[in-house]
Amino acid sequence: MFHDSSQRKYWTFDTEEEVEQMRCEANQKFRQKMIESGKHVVNESVFLERYEEDILFRHYERRLQEFCNVFKPAMPKSVVGTAIMYFRRFYMNNSIMEYNPRIIMLTCAYLACKVDEFNVSSSQFVGNLVQETPAGQERALEQILEYELLLIQQLNFHLVVHNPYRPMEGLLIDLKTRYPTLDSPEMLRKHADDFLTQAAMTDAGLLFPPSQIALAAVLSSASRFGLNLESYLTECLGLKEDKETLSKIYDSVRRMKYLLKRYEPPRPEDVNAYKQKLERIHVEFGPSLSNKRKRGYEEDGHVAKEPRLTEEEEWTDEDLL
Known about the structure:
Elements: H1 6-10, H2 16-36, H3 50-69, H4 77-93, H5 101-115, H6 122-127, H7 134-154, H8 165-178, H9 189-199, H10 204-207, H11 210-224, H12 230-236, H13 243-262, H14 268-285, H15 291-298
Helix pairs in contact: 3-4, 3-5, 3-14, 4-5, 5-7, 8-11, 9-11, 11-13
């Protein structure tokens, strides 16, 4: 149950500012580590600023979602949600400058399949890197397995993720059985699903319980049809006399809607510029990073169409699909 879960205790935060502070600290920690290494004359302008990291993070998070959405066999929504949450949690305490997001995103998806018991073999998993050669898929698997323990450790072994998909199903069933005022609750599903998909691209899962996210999705969907479900909240959910809880629910829904409204997809020109900057960071500080972290970037040939990347060749995200 969520109430007693590690997610509620360790991975649910009070404010966006608290979450952003942790990401800023991860950025600063990497900068300080490189400066103190003494191996380079460091010009701090070479580092990614926090907003630049955030743009790259949003880019790779979207790539992760796209990879999961076209996965064969079809990946359950709960597995996709778990993978995305792993990705968010990992980069709360680690900088993109230190750990290559291309490999971390694949490792998050691979681990989510195992934890949520979506039974695909390792060869099936990397087989979804459809642009890759068999040799490249094998190298991809080697890197994923190499990073799997690191990911588990950085998640503090808190691997169970409570997603909002099951609570949303429960709400739709409850509307059908206990709220006859609404003729067809099923019509709310599509917009509610869209809301959850968009919410996964924000910090909603780090700020709100999954049941509240699901309720916000249903209420948002209802509003698209000009429906007011306040009587459902007051009568069926027993909040008629609990004005304080009802007010908190509405406040949470407003905050979530604002998160979704504020989200902006990264611009391709920004992504390309900051990718180049990230590449320079790995060239500049490669010797100061552990072999594993350095290999994570330099050997990302598993997402290229050729068996090996040369220094002149470039990797593109489209090779994931």
